[in-house]
């Protein structure tokens, strides 16, 4: 138990941050909430539309599908990278560190266009496929969900590495030795000891990736080419292009609620300090 | 003691282990008999764990060979050696129940569900964990976790069980209880046990033989009685318990034993190395010495004065000084201590001839 004065001190230190959050997020959030129930007329009409409008529904379903796919691929890739980072030889560790850190230095926009350069019909991959005669027609790798999943996965892998690596570091080496001594093969140790013992990291990483992915805007906008619209882009379209502020606001609020629920779940699985790696 | 049909016999020949220029183990040769309870005893950093890891196959020896039942296993990895191992801190699988932990080595060996069930039940009973089968290790006390580790390591009837300071995390009374249980498990299973500890009383109490390590060298191997009563050198003598050391000179052989001068009095030794000549150290355990008002006729005796005393309850520990300035201590009844402590009283420190040891002058 902390002493009372301790709590008070902590509260004082946190106060500026809380104030900033209230000003920068709380007030605008209340504003958006107000739009969602007042525009174009007072009532829950926009939420009703949200539940019935097939277009909005299809965007939510697509978003869920893309986020789920991205979560699976990003967490799987992050698990492999974290494994090398934590348990590899010194050279492998260094390589893994670069894989994790370099993406942080390149802006999300640059990375998205990088993928376009790689995946588009005139991109590196399709050019090579045609030049070598493997294919006559270009593969549709971008301006569709595939491109979106690739770009988002790439962006989110580093964020998934940290919770996984921290779970792997916490694992007692002797437990693995014990399993070996009891006669278990490497495959067996990996699947029945290593993976279950790092499950908290996997779940934490999955939640982080999923929550981040829900709010993605730039990557799907560029790599989806307007054909694979996700929720965040839909909000943008409703507010800046339609303009249908009420529906845009209602979608925003729904998204915030989903993210809030998932974040609560996240904190139940992981203490925030663990995410820092 | 019943012998398990699977108890293994180990033989280490010239084992060495180097980490860079540092030699953690130096040319170590040791035989571990079938069904034996061998303890590796030594101070911290003496190479006990390193040797155990080599026996288990987790570490590779830099030099030397290892045989199990006559088969060369030097290059065999741990997972193929199938020696049971109990780690310091137990290393249980935290996400598996007690039963699943114990079943793990059996699952790995693809035993039938029926056999796994039977064997787990048997082990749970053997270590007294009935009713805890479905708990996770974190929900158990230290002693109970220890039992799970023992049951898991013994479940697949390994030829040898290796234990690295298994009791170091337990409090004293629990330690005593676990020691007794381990001794019983050893007798019931008949498996060869190799046990690491740096606690000399634990080593003496449990083992059929004790191997004493220092600085990566094996100094002496023998039964607890042999190493305690006939230590081969000063380090072993001191490590196994308190011992008084007095300078001895003019040593000469005498009727299979030896005679020499200690504090200018002739003393006799029933046992002495054949080559003992000249000067050496005379070593006697305090419990084999007593004090008297007059020199004893049938025993060795030297004059001493008492310096201080410590009350021990059942006895008094007296710290003594000889005329030449050597120190010694002895546990005596209160009466004897009182007389010795009276100012200026010279008393006689006495011991029987068969209790004196000759140790080489150098360590
Ligand atoms: N991987 C390693 N790299 C370098 N030196 C090592 C390594 N493992 C052990 N050593 C050294 O080898 C020596 C013996 O270590 P070991 O762990 O066998 O000692 P120990 O007798 O088990 O001691 P303790 O009673 O403290 O457990 C120590 O000096 C240790 O520092
Ligand atoms: Mg050790």
UniProtKB/TrEMBL annotation, chain A:
Membrane topology label: Multi-pass membrane protein
Domain of life per record: Bacteria
Transmembrane domains' residue ranges: 63-86, 98-118, 146-168, 189-218, 245-270
Annotated ranges, domain ABC transmembrane type-1: 60-266
Gene3D superfamilies recorded: MetI-like (1.10.3720.10)
Subcellular location: Cell membrane
Protein family per UniProt: Belongs to the binding-protein-dependent transport system permease family. CysTW subfamily.
Record protein name field: Polyamine ABC transporter permease
Species in which this protein is naturally found: Shinella yambaruensis
TrEMBL record, chain B:
Domain ABC transporter residues, every copy: 10-240
A Pfam family reported for this protein in Swiss-Prot or TrEMBL: ABC_tran
Keywords: ATP-binding, Nucleotide-binding, Transport
Presence of the UniProt keyword Ubl conjugation in the record: no
MF terms in GO: ATP binding
Entry's family note: Belongs to the ABC transporter superfamily.
PANTHER family named in the record: SPERMIDINE/PUTRESCINE IMPORT ATP-BINDING PROTEIN POTA, SPERMIDINE_PUTRESCINE IMPORT ATP-BINDING PROTEIN POTA
Protein name: ABC transporter ATP-binding protein
The organism of origin for this protein: Shinella yambaruensis
The organism's taxonomic lineage, starting at the top: Bacteria, Pseudomonadati, Pseudomonadota, Alphaproteobacteria, Hyphomicrobiales
């Amino acid at each position: 138990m902390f002493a009372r004065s301790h709590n008070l001190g902590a509260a004082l230190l946190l106060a500026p941050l809380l104030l900033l959050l209230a000003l920068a997020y709380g007030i605008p959030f209340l504003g958006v909430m107000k739009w969602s129930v007042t525009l174009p007329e007072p009532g829950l009409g926009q939420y009703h539309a949200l539940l019935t409008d097939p277009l909005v529904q299809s965007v939510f379903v697509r978003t869920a599908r893309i986020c789920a796919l991205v979560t699976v691929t990003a967490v799987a890739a992050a698990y492999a990278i974290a494994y090398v980072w934590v348990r590899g030889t010194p050279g492998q560790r260094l390589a893994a560190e670069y894989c994790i850190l370099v993406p942080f230095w390149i802006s999300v926009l640059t990375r998205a266009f990088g993928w376009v350069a790689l995946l588009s019909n005139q991109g590196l991959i399709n050019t090579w496929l045609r030049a070598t005669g493997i294919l006559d027609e270009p593969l549709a790798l971008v301006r569709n969900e595939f491109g979106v999943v690739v770009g988002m996965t790439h962006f989110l892998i580093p964020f998934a590495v940290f919770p996984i690596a921290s779970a792997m570091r916490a694992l007692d080496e002797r437990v693995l030795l014990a399993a070996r001594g009891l006669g278990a093969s490497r495959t067996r140790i990996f699947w029945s000891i290593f993976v279950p013992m790092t499950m908290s990291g996997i779940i934490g990483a999955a939640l982080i990736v999923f929550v981040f992915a829900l709010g993605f805007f730039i990557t799907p906008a560029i790599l989806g080419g307007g054909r694979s619209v996700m929720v965040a882009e839909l909000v943008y379209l409703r507010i800046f292009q339609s303009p249908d502020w009420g529906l845009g606001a209602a979608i925003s609020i729904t998204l915030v609620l989903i993210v809030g629920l998932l974040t609560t779940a996240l904190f139940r699985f992981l203490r925030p300090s663990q995410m820092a790696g | 003691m019943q012998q398990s049909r699977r108890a293994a016999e180990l033989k280490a020949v010239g084992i060495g282990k180097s980490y860079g220029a540092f030699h953690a183990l130096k040319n170590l040769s040791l035989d571990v008999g079938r069904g034996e309870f061998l303890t590796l005893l030594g101070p911290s950093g003496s190479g006990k764990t390193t040797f155990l890891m080599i026996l288990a196959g987790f570490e590779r020896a830099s030099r030397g060979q290892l045989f199990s039942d006559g088969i060369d296993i030097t290059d065999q990895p741990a997972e193929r050696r199938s020696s049971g191992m109990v780690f310091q801190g137990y290393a249980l699988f935290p996400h598996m129940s007690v039963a699943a932990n114990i079943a793990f080595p059996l699952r790995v060996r693809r035993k039938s569900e029926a056999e796994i069930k039977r064997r787990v039940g048997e082990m749970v009973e053997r270590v007294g964990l009935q009713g805890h089968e479905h708990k996770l290790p974190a929900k158990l006390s230290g002693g109970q976790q220890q039992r799970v580790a023992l049951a898991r390591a013994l479940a697949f009837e390994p030829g040898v069980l290796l234990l690295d300071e298994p009791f170091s995390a337990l409090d004293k009374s629990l330690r005593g209880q676990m020691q007794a249980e381990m001794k019983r498990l050893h007798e019931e299973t008949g498996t060869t046990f190799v046990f690491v500890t740096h606690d000399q009383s634990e080593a003496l109490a449990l083992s059929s033989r004790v191997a004493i390590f220092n600085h990566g060298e094996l100094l002496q191997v023998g039964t607890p009685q042999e190493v305690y009563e006939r230590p081969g050198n000063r380090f072993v003598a001191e490590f196994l318990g308190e011992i008084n050391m007095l300078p001895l000179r003019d040593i000469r052989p005498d009727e299979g034993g030896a005679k020499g001068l200690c504090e200018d009095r002739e003393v006799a030794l029933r046992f002495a190395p054949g080559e003992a000549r000249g000067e050496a150290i005379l070593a006697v355990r305090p419990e084999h010495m007593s004090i008297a008002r007059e020199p004893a006729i049938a025993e060795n005796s030297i004059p001493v004065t008492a310096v201080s005393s410590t009350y021990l309850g059942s006895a008094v520990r007296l710290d003594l000084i000889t005329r030449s300035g050597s120190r010694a201590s002895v546990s005596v009844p209160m009466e004897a201590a009182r007389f010795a402590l009276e100012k200026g009283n010279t008393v006689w420190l006495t011991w029987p001839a068969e209790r004196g040891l000759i140790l080489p002058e150098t360590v």
